[in-house]
Amino acid sequence: MNAQQLSHRLTRVAHHVPKGTVVADIGSDHAYLPCHLVLNGVVDKVIAGEVVKGPFESAQKQVQQEGLTAQIDVRLASGLDVILPEDSISTVTIAGMGGPLICSILVQGKKQLVGVERLILQPNVHAKSIRDWAVANNWGIVEEEILKENEKIYEILVLQKVEATVLWTPQQMLMGPELLKEKTAIFQEKWTRESDQWKKIVALMESTAQTKGIIEKKQGLIEKIQLVEEVLQRENS
Protein backbone atom coordinates (compact mmCIF):
# COMPACT_ATOMS: atom_id res chain seq x y z
CA MET A 1 0.00 0.00 0.00
CA ASN A 2 1.11 3.56 -0.75
CA ALA A 3 -0.40 6.99 -1.39
CA GLN A 4 -1.15 6.12 -5.02
CA GLN A 5 -2.57 2.67 -4.26
CA LEU A 6 -4.50 2.60 -0.99
CA SER A 7 -5.90 -0.53 0.62
CA HIS A 8 -9.54 -1.26 -0.23
CA ARG A 9 -10.50 -0.15 3.29
CA LEU A 10 -8.84 3.27 3.04
CA THR A 11 -10.02 3.72 -0.56
CA ARG A 12 -13.59 3.48 0.70
CA VAL A 13 -12.84 5.92 3.54
CA ALA A 14 -11.47 8.35 0.94
CA HIS A 15 -14.63 7.89 -1.14
CA HIS A 16 -16.70 9.56 1.59
CA VAL A 17 -14.53 12.69 1.85
CA PRO A 18 -16.42 15.63 0.25
CA LYS A 19 -14.47 17.40 -2.46
CA GLY A 20 -12.89 20.67 -1.37
CA THR A 21 -13.24 20.21 2.39
CA VAL A 22 -10.43 20.71 4.90
CA VAL A 23 -9.60 17.37 6.50
CA ALA A 24 -8.01 16.26 9.75
CA ASP A 25 -6.85 12.63 9.58
CA ILE A 26 -6.38 11.34 13.12
CA GLY A 27 -3.96 8.46 13.65
CA SER A 28 -2.61 9.04 10.16
CA ASP A 29 0.23 6.52 10.40
CA HIS A 30 2.19 6.90 7.12
CA ALA A 31 -0.14 9.71 5.92
CA TYR A 32 -1.17 7.57 2.94
CA LEU A 33 -4.78 8.78 3.12
CA PRO A 34 -3.92 12.51 3.26
CA CYS A 35 -1.44 12.15 0.41
CA HIS A 36 -3.97 10.22 -1.66
CA LEU A 37 -6.66 12.86 -1.13
CA VAL A 38 -4.38 15.70 -2.23
CA LEU A 39 -2.75 13.83 -5.12
CA ASN A 40 -6.18 12.97 -6.52
CA GLY A 41 -7.49 16.51 -6.23
CA VAL A 42 -10.14 15.71 -3.64
CA VAL A 43 -8.88 18.30 -1.14
CA ASP A 44 -6.22 20.99 -0.98
CA LYS A 45 -5.40 20.91 2.72
CA VAL A 46 -5.06 18.13 5.30
CA ILE A 47 -3.87 17.99 8.90
CA ALA A 48 -2.29 14.58 9.55
CA GLY A 49 -2.23 13.81 13.27
CA GLU A 50 -0.16 11.22 15.13
CA VAL A 51 0.37 10.67 18.84
CA VAL A 52 3.35 8.30 18.51
CA LYS A 53 6.74 9.62 17.42
CA GLY A 54 7.61 6.75 15.05
CA PRO A 55 4.45 6.98 12.90
CA PHE A 56 4.65 10.79 13.11
CA GLU A 57 8.14 10.71 11.57
CA SER A 58 7.00 8.18 8.95
CA ALA A 59 4.14 10.50 8.00
CA GLN A 60 6.50 13.46 7.72
CA LYS A 61 8.83 11.46 5.47
CA GLN A 62 5.97 10.31 3.24
CA VAL A 63 4.62 13.84 2.82
CA GLN A 64 8.10 15.13 1.96
CA GLN A 65 8.66 12.36 -0.58
CA GLU A 66 5.38 13.23 -2.29
CA GLY A 67 6.27 16.93 -2.33
CA LEU A 68 3.13 17.86 -0.41
CA THR A 69 4.51 19.75 2.60
CA ALA A 70 2.62 22.90 1.55
CA GLN A 71 -0.73 21.09 1.61
CA ILE A 72 -0.33 18.51 4.36
CA ASP A 73 0.67 19.57 7.87
CA VAL A 74 1.87 16.61 9.95
CA ARG A 75 1.45 17.25 13.68
CA LEU A 76 2.39 15.34 16.82
CA ALA A 77 -0.38 15.47 19.43
CA SER A 78 -3.04 13.32 21.07
CA GLY A 79 -6.26 12.78 19.12
CA LEU A 80 -8.12 15.92 18.10
CA ASP A 81 -5.60 18.14 19.91
CA VAL A 82 -3.87 18.43 16.52
CA ILE A 83 -6.73 20.66 15.36
CA LEU A 84 -6.45 24.43 15.87
CA PRO A 85 -9.35 26.90 15.47
CA GLU A 86 -7.64 28.60 12.52
CA ASP A 87 -7.51 25.28 10.61
CA SER A 88 -11.25 25.51 9.82
CA ILE A 89 -11.53 21.73 9.70
CA SER A 90 -14.81 20.53 8.20
CA THR A 91 -14.14 16.77 7.90
CA VAL A 92 -12.46 14.40 10.36
CA THR A 93 -11.33 10.89 9.43
CA ILE A 94 -10.35 8.27 12.00
CA ALA A 95 -9.56 4.80 10.65
CA GLY A 96 -8.03 1.57 11.85
CA MET A 97 -8.80 1.75 15.58
CA GLY A 98 -11.29 0.04 17.86
CA GLY A 99 -14.69 1.69 18.27
CA PRO A 100 -14.19 2.50 21.97
CA LEU A 101 -10.85 4.20 21.26
CA ILE A 102 -12.41 6.28 18.48
CA CYS A 103 -15.16 7.30 20.93
CA SER A 104 -12.64 8.33 23.57
CA ILE A 105 -10.89 10.52 20.99
CA LEU A 106 -14.21 12.17 20.12
CA VAL A 107 -15.13 12.66 23.78
CA GLN A 108 -11.77 14.16 24.73
CA GLY A 109 -11.75 16.38 21.64
CA LYS A 110 -15.31 17.68 21.91
CA LYS A 111 -14.21 21.33 21.66
CA GLN A 112 -12.30 20.64 18.45
CA LEU A 113 -15.45 19.25 16.82
CA VAL A 114 -17.11 22.67 16.80
CA GLY A 115 -17.53 23.56 13.13
CA VAL A 116 -16.81 20.03 11.91
CA GLU A 117 -19.54 18.94 9.47
CA ARG A 118 -18.63 15.31 8.78
CA LEU A 119 -16.99 12.43 10.65
CA ILE A 120 -15.78 9.45 8.64
CA LEU A 121 -15.04 6.67 11.12
CA GLN A 122 -13.70 3.19 10.37
CA PRO A 123 -13.63 1.08 13.52
CA ASN A 124 -11.89 -2.30 13.38
CA VAL A 125 -14.25 -3.64 16.05
CA HIS A 126 -17.22 -2.56 18.20
CA ALA A 127 -18.90 -0.13 15.81
CA LYS A 128 -21.90 -0.05 18.16
CA SER A 129 -19.96 2.12 20.61
CA ILE A 130 -19.73 4.79 17.90
CA ARG A 131 -23.49 4.63 17.34
CA ASP A 132 -24.01 5.01 21.10
CA TRP A 133 -21.79 8.10 21.05
CA ALA A 134 -23.60 9.49 18.00
CA VAL A 135 -27.01 9.23 19.67
CA ALA A 136 -25.71 10.86 22.86
CA ASN A 137 -24.13 13.75 20.96
CA ASN A 138 -26.69 14.48 18.21
CA TRP A 139 -24.80 13.05 15.27
CA GLY A 140 -26.73 11.15 12.62
CA ILE A 141 -25.44 8.37 10.37
CA VAL A 142 -25.83 9.36 6.72
CA GLU A 143 -23.93 6.43 5.21
CA GLU A 144 -22.52 3.09 6.30
CA GLU A 145 -20.42 0.49 4.52
CA ILE A 146 -19.34 -3.01 5.39
CA LEU A 147 -16.41 -4.56 3.54
CA LYS A 148 -14.00 -7.45 3.69
CA GLU A 149 -10.24 -7.21 3.26
CA ASN A 150 -7.65 -9.89 4.01
CA GLU A 151 -10.32 -12.06 5.65
CA LYS A 152 -11.24 -9.27 8.08
CA ILE A 153 -14.58 -7.45 8.03
CA TYR A 154 -14.69 -3.69 8.59
CA GLU A 155 -17.43 -1.09 8.88
CA ILE A 156 -17.31 2.56 7.83
CA LEU A 157 -19.68 5.06 9.45
CA VAL A 158 -20.24 8.53 8.02
CA LEU A 159 -21.75 10.95 10.55
CA GLN A 160 -23.15 14.45 10.25
CA LYS A 161 -24.44 16.77 12.95
CA VAL A 162 -28.23 16.81 13.40
CA GLU A 163 -30.56 19.09 15.35
CA ALA A 164 -32.94 16.53 16.82
CA THR A 165 -32.04 13.50 18.92
CA VAL A 166 -31.57 10.41 16.75
CA LEU A 167 -33.68 7.40 17.74
CA TRP A 168 -32.67 3.93 16.55
CA THR A 169 -33.99 0.50 17.47
CA PRO A 170 -31.73 -1.94 19.38
CA GLN A 171 -31.12 -3.81 16.10
CA GLN A 172 -30.13 -0.60 14.33
CA MET A 173 -27.77 0.34 17.16
CA LEU A 174 -26.10 -3.05 17.05
CA MET A 175 -26.03 -3.78 13.33
CA GLY A 176 -26.23 -0.36 11.69
CA PRO A 177 -29.33 1.52 10.46
CA GLU A 178 -28.01 1.87 6.92
CA LEU A 179 -26.40 -1.59 6.75
CA LEU A 180 -29.72 -3.17 7.75
CA LYS A 181 -31.34 -1.73 4.62
CA GLU A 182 -29.21 -3.82 2.29
CA LYS A 183 -28.03 -6.78 4.40
CA THR A 184 -25.25 -7.71 1.98
CA ALA A 185 -23.52 -11.10 1.92
CA ILE A 186 -20.63 -9.66 3.95
CA PHE A 187 -23.11 -8.25 6.48
CA GLN A 188 -24.69 -11.69 6.85
CA GLU A 189 -21.28 -13.33 7.15
CA LYS A 190 -20.22 -10.94 9.90
CA TRP A 191 -23.33 -11.39 11.99
CA THR A 192 -23.48 -15.15 11.53
CA ARG A 193 -19.90 -15.28 12.79
CA GLU A 194 -20.66 -12.96 15.72
CA SER A 195 -23.77 -14.89 16.73
CA ASP A 196 -21.94 -18.22 16.61
CA GLN A 197 -19.16 -16.82 18.80
CA TRP A 198 -21.63 -15.45 21.34
CA LYS A 199 -23.38 -18.83 21.50
CA LYS A 200 -20.08 -20.52 22.34
CA ILE A 201 -19.45 -18.00 25.12
CA VAL A 202 -22.95 -18.52 26.54
CA ALA A 203 -22.40 -22.30 26.52
CA LEU A 204 -19.16 -21.88 28.46
CA MET A 205 -20.92 -19.61 30.96
CA GLU A 206 -23.49 -22.31 31.64
CA SER A 207 -20.76 -24.48 33.16
CA THR A 208 -19.39 -21.77 35.46
CA ALA A 209 -20.64 -20.49 38.81
CA GLN A 210 -23.78 -18.41 38.17
CA THR A 211 -22.73 -15.21 39.89
CA LYS A 212 -24.71 -12.03 39.37
CA GLY A 213 -22.09 -10.74 36.94
CA ILE A 214 -22.10 -13.94 34.89
CA ILE A 215 -25.90 -14.03 34.74
CA GLU A 216 -26.08 -10.41 33.58
CA LYS A 217 -23.39 -10.89 30.94
CA LYS A 218 -25.02 -14.08 29.70
CA GLN A 219 -28.40 -12.37 29.43
CA GLY A 220 -26.86 -9.53 27.48
CA LEU A 221 -25.34 -11.95 24.99
CA ILE A 222 -28.60 -13.88 24.64
CA GLU A 223 -30.43 -10.64 23.85
CA LYS A 224 -27.86 -9.76 21.16
CA ILE A 225 -28.09 -13.26 19.67
CA GLN A 226 -31.88 -12.87 19.45
CA LEU A 227 -31.59 -9.48 17.74
CA VAL A 228 -29.15 -10.83 15.17
CA GLU A 229 -31.04 -14.05 14.48
CA GLU A 230 -34.29 -12.16 13.91
CA VAL A 231 -32.60 -10.31 11.06
CA LEU A 232 -30.78 -13.31 9.60
CA GLN A 233 -33.82 -15.57 9.73
CA ARG A 234 -35.99 -12.91 8.10
CA GLU A 235 -33.44 -12.49 5.33
CA ASN A 236 -33.13 -16.23 4.68
CA SER A 237 -36.85 -17.06 4.90
Automatic annotation (TrEMBL):
Transmembrane segments: none
Protein source organism: Planococcus antarcticus DSM 14505
Recorded GO MF terms: methyltransferase activity
Gene3D superfamilies xref list: 1.10.287.1890, Vaccinia Virus protein VP39
Sorted UniProt keywords: Methyltransferase, Transferase
Nucleotide-binding keyword on record: no
Protein known as: SAM-dependent methyltransferase
Record Pfam families: TrmK
GO BP term, pick one: methylation
Domain of life, per lineage: Bacteria
